[in-house]
Amino acid sequence: MSSILSPSGLRPDSKIELRTRANTPIDNLQAWQYSSFEWAQLGESLKRFKEPYAKALGSPSPVYNCHGLTFASRRTAVDSSNETVFRVLKEDDYEEVPQSDARPGDVILYLDAVGQAQHSGIVVDIIERGVPKVWSKWGKGQEFIHHFWHCPFDPQYTKYYRLK
Q: Domain range spanning residue 125?
């Protein structure tokens, strides 16, 4: 499929048809380019996250966000409102599990102090003392494999979910 360009020569933002297992539409957006401001910000705030606790993967992409990686196979940026994120978890038949029971394939959800969804990822390993290792995408930047606590999001309020 060829992309259709706007008069400015850029591919316009778009959406895809995305639904939960219960057939409810999921709000999403595919942004195809970064603004000058976003390009300037892309690595500056992440320099403190280094191996062995966080490893960057690939190149940045504006097309999808963390929830798009977690719930939409990297195809689009999924709306990050609690309404959308918790609807996907419910309608896709996830159940909450304790961190002590987390295992590869589970979803980790980072919340703020008042319960607003901030970030999501996929548990890929459990390392020493039960510490989950996570695969996630940081904003419009890169994907990372990281210890659950070594990322720009507060690990104090994390929840774990597993498909039933």
A: 28-34+49-163
In the numeric block, the tokens 């930047």 are attached to: 141
- CATH of residue 86's domain is 3.90.1720
How many domains does the structure of the chain reveal? 1
Q: What is the 3-state secondary structure (H, E, C) of 49-83?
A: CCCCCEEEECCCCCCCCHHHHHHHCCCCEECCCHH
Let me know if 58 is exposed, middle or buried by CB neighbors in 10 A (0-12, 13-18, 19+).
Answer: exposed
Asked whether residue 14 is assigned to any structural domain, the reply reads no
Asked if residue 129 is part of any domain, the answer here is: yes
C-alpha 126/C-alpha 73 separation (Å) is 22
pLDDT-derived band at 149, boundaries 50, 70, 90? very high
Burial of 59 (0-12, 13-18, 19+ CB in 10 A): exposed
CA atoms within 13 Å, Cβ hemisphere of 15: 10
pLDDT in tens, 61-83: 999 999 999 999 999 999 999 99
Question: Taking the complete model, does pTM exceed 0.85, yes or no?
Answer: yes
Is 22 within a domain?
no
pLDDT band at 34 (very low <50, low <70, confident <90, very high): confident
For residue 41, count other CB atoms closer than 10 A to its CB: 15
